[in-house]
Structures are given as structure tokens and as C-alpha cells.
Design a protein that fits this description.
The protein is an alpha+beta fold. It has two domains: 170 residues, no CATH class; 83 residues, no CATH class. Helices cover 27% and strands 31% of the residues. The protein contains six helices and 18 strands. A five-stranded antiparallel β-sheet has the order 2-11-10-6-7. A four-stranded antiparallel β-sheet has the order 1-3-5-8, with no helix packed on it. A hairpin with a 6-residue loop joins strand 10 and strand 11. Helix 5 packs antiparallel against helix 6. The protein is elongated and about 100 Å long.
Length: 320
């Protein structure tokens, strides 16, 4: 069972303070510096005043570029928001809110997952997964970091690297932030086994017979696979379309999704995928269902909260 804080932990907020913003020349910047050195040697060798003017002008331009690159990142506020759960194999979307609280616009802000040694990325080519965005003055924007998932459990975003090469690409300023974001990854719904038969509690069924039936709570639209005995035929005759009667489920059948019913295979992931599919199917059909897996038991229920409780249990099964 996953802890309740997984996927819903308080979002992390961080401001890129000036002392935490680092800057270093890019490959283009190193090439530009070498070119300036060659130009300076040529100007000295030939004692050419125009060559001196051009060399020092370009050098001064590089110094101004350092300031613009640095201030394009410093002071930006980032907030990590808890992502929605996904199924294994899907793309997790980690929302990150960027807040530009200054009176000037920021350009070409890049966000991606930081490497083990973030300074190495100064020398690497830009990743295809890097997300770029511009920030208008005094503006709030939410962007989504896409992370592929391959297996169930908890997928942390990890370190988020924020960088920029604006305006000329000669220098890269960067910083990183631990947002504390985690995404709950449910098992991939799979399997072709039919839902196991529902069981009837004799005591509850006897109570139901005393009042004639379960308590009626309303109608819902017909879904393929619904029992014909619950169809509201009178409503259909009045031209309201196929509707299904809904009851509180206290009386009759309850479906218990068990570990052994999911198959005889020894593959744990295959069983979890089958149970995941059953949970979704039972929820879709409006059946009251519970979950019984080794080490954990959930009483029958229904609704979005109950569904996510069952799926969260499957996601965390066997994980430390």
C-alpha cells in the first residue's frame, strides 16, 4: 500500500536566488572567445586600430551578454504541483508554475530533468525533451514536464533544471530545484478474464427482502454489460432513453476481487494488471466491489474515491 502522501504531498516552491544561479560559456561562447583572442593577436601584430576597435567592441558585447543571461533567470519563482495518477506505459505530466514577478520579460526559459552532474549539460546538446517557454512581465504560467512511465509505483520528478542561453547563446545560466513532486503510477490495465461472480451476504439479503429491495437512489445511463433486470422500462417507454436503476447496494450482491481469481500465473505484474482491469470494469458497471490481495483488504464500495484507493493499493503492492 502506498502512503497517503504519494502524489498529493504539498507542492515545493523555490525562488532562483542570485547566489544560486550559475553561469558558464557554451560551446559557441568558447568559440567566440577563441575568435576574439585571434582577432586581438592580429590587431597587435599589424597595429591596426580598426581591428582593436572591433575586438574590444565584440568583447564588450560579450560582457553585456553575461548580465542579460544572468538576469533572465535570477528571481524566477517555481512551484511544483501534484500530478494526476497515470497507468504504467502512459506519460506522466508534472505541472510546474512559473511566476515572473519583475517588470521585464524573460525569454527562452528551458526546463528539463537535471543530470547527475548538472554542469555537464553546459557542454551537451539540447535534449529533445527540454521544454522552452517565454515569461511576460509580472505573469504567471503553468507548464507540464512530460515523463514516460514504464512500471507501476511512485515516479518522482527529481531535480528540475532551469536554464537559459538568452540573448546570444554565448553563455548558459542555470539552476536546479527539488520540487518534491511524485506521480502515482497504477498497473497497466490488461487481461481478458471475465469479472468473477458476485457473492451474496445471506444476512444482508434477508434484510433486503424485508423491505422489498435495496434503497433506490436514482438513475444513470445504460452501459453495455448492465443487467437487463435493472433497466427502467417505464422510463424507456416514455422516451427518456435506456436508464438503469441505481441502489445503495446494502442488500444483495457484492463483488470481491481476489488475488487467486486473477489467474494461475506466477507473474505478479500480470495478476495486478488483470485486477486493475477488473476494478475499472466494475466501477464502470456500477458494481459494488472490494479488493483482497496478500497483506491488504478493502471492503466493497463504489465511487471515484474507492476506485483510486483500490488502484493505489495495486500500485504499491510488494514495494518497500
Amino acid at each position: 500500500m502506498l502512503p497517503d502522501q504519494a502524489g498529493v504531498m504539498p507542492p515545493g516552491t523555490g525562488t532562483l536566488q542570485k547566489q544560486r544561479v550559475y553561469i558558464f560559456p557554451t560551446r559557441q561562447g568558447i568559440t567566440f572567445a577563441c575568435m576574439l583572442l585571434i582577432m586581438l593577436l592580429g590587431a597587435i601584430n599589424y597595429n591596426n586600430s580598426m581591428a582593436f576597435v572591433l575586438t574590444f567592441f565584440l568583447g564588450g558585447l560579450a560582457m553585456v551578454c553575461i548580465l542579460h543571461t544572468y538576469h533572465n533567470l535570477a528571481g524566477l519563482v517555481l512551484t511544483g504541483i501534484a500530478p494526476q495518477p497515470v497507468y504504467a506505459g502512459e506519460t506522466a505530466l508534472f505541472p510546474v508554475t512559473l511566476d515572473n514577478r519583475v517588470g521585464y520579460q524573460r525569454y527562452a526559459i528551458a526546463l528539463d530533468q537535471a543530470a547527475q552532474r548538472p554542469w555537464l549539460k553546459t557542454w551537451q546538446r539540447v535534449s529533445a525533451d527540454t521544454l522552452y517557454t517565454d515569461m511576460p512581465a509580472r505573469h504567471l504560467k503553468t507548464v507540464y514536464i512530460q515523463v514516460e512511465t514504464t512500471r507501476r509505483g511512485i515516479r518522482p520528478l527529481g531535480r528540475l533544471k532551469i536554464s537559459t542561453c538568452f540573448p546570444l547563446g554565448l553563455f548558459r545560466a542555470w539552476s536546479w530545484l527539488e520540487t518534491g513532486q511524485t506521480c502515482v503510477v497504477y498497473p497497466r490495465p490488461d487481461g481478458n478474464r471475465p469479472l468473477p461472480p458476485a457473492t451474496i451476504d445471506p444476512l444482508e439479503d434477508q434484510k433486503g427482502n424485508q423491505i422489498g429491495t435495496d434503497d433506490f437512489i436514482g438513475f444513470r445511463k445504460y452501459r453495455p454489460g448492465d443487467s437487463t433486470r435493472n433497466i427502467a422500462w417505464k422510463a424507456l417507454a416514455r422516451g427518456q432513453g435506456p436508464l438503469v436503476k441505481r441502489f445503495d447496494g446494502k442488500g444483495a450482491s457484492k463483488l470481491m476481487l481476489g488475488w487467486h481469481a486473477a489467474g494461475h500465473t506466477q507473474n505478479t505484474e500480470t495478476r495486478l494488471s488483470q485486477l486493475c482491469r477488473w476494478v475499472l470494469r466494475a466501477e464502470q458497471q456500477g458494481i459494488h466491489y472490494g479488493l483482497a490481495i496478500p497483506g491488504f483488504h478493502i471492503e466493497p464500495g463504489h465511487g471515484e474515491q474507492h476506485k483510486h484507493l483500490c488502484l493505489r493499493s495495486l500500485a504499491g503492492y510488494g514495494l518497500a
